[in-house]
Amino acid sequence: MTGTPALDLRSVRRVYGFGPSATTALDDVHLSVPAGRFVSLIGPSGCGKSTLLRIAAGLEEPDHGTVRVHGVEPAEACAAKMIGLVPQSPALLPWLSVLRNVTLPHKINKGAARRRERIAGNAERAVTGAPDMRELLVKAGLGEAMHKLPAQLSGGMRQRAAIVRAFGLRPDVLVMDEPFSALDEFTRESLQDQLLDLWDELKTTVLFVTHSVSEAVRLSDTVVVMAPHPGRIVDTIEVDLERPRGDRLFGERRFHEYEDLIRDRLRRAWRSEAA
Ligand SMILES: Nc1ncnc2c1ncn2[C@@H]1O[C@H](COP(=O)(O)OP(=O)(O)OP(=O)(O)O)[C@@H](O)[C@H]1O
User: Which Gene3D superfamilies does this entry report, sorted A to Z (predicted)?
Assistant: First the structure.
């Protein structure tokens, strides 16, 4: 897959509604993400982050422009289960144990592996198959909880289960829409650690929406700053901090310099809107 970006959006435009009440959610968006990168989208409310995610995940089509996922159209990538989605609140099936919830997608999507193999250059990932879900649950701190029902878990545990489930199909691209926004700070940091561990092990490309500057810096290789009216990309910042990025990172000057830089770019995005 060398050379073909995991995600490639060119001149993407998305407008909701018509006439004077139309909203340009995305205007002339270009984004190319090499395979294996962790990219965060950050920006004021309404700047089109979720719209961009939905378009990248094939849940919505742009009005103009092209989108490719490992060189193919999002619909084809979806059919081959190359794209995983973690929404803001975890949608687990309440009558199934955690273990059955996370293994279910693999069971019902067996045909996807064959489709994936047929997509040029993608055979290598497809044949490696699904990771051991019990092992992933243990890694995510859910070893004791794997036979419990979702209702018996805390919010943070449910979100961890949803992340493990998304990784279960070994998606080439994982899109995550503010998955930790409803959690307290400590749970959030612990989930960031676990997400980074899983990402490091499975080498998935991640597109992650967040409102938290420190979360974006801690997790990402690249932070994409967006501005609204019209929704657009205004800055792309490469985060050149060593990995693994444990708690120690919070004490490092360079970490805070990146936070300051991104806050400054966000302020400019706000000002450009107000002007
Ligand atoms: N289905 C829709 N119909 C009409 N307008 C929509 C629709 N979805 C999004 N929009 C509008 O498009 C713009 C971008 O919305 P989007 O949800 O992508 O922004 P966001 O950056 O994710 O916002 P937030 O941070 O508040 O979640 C907003 O003005 C929103 O009102």
Answer: P-loop containing nucleotide triphosphate hydrolases (3.40.50.300)
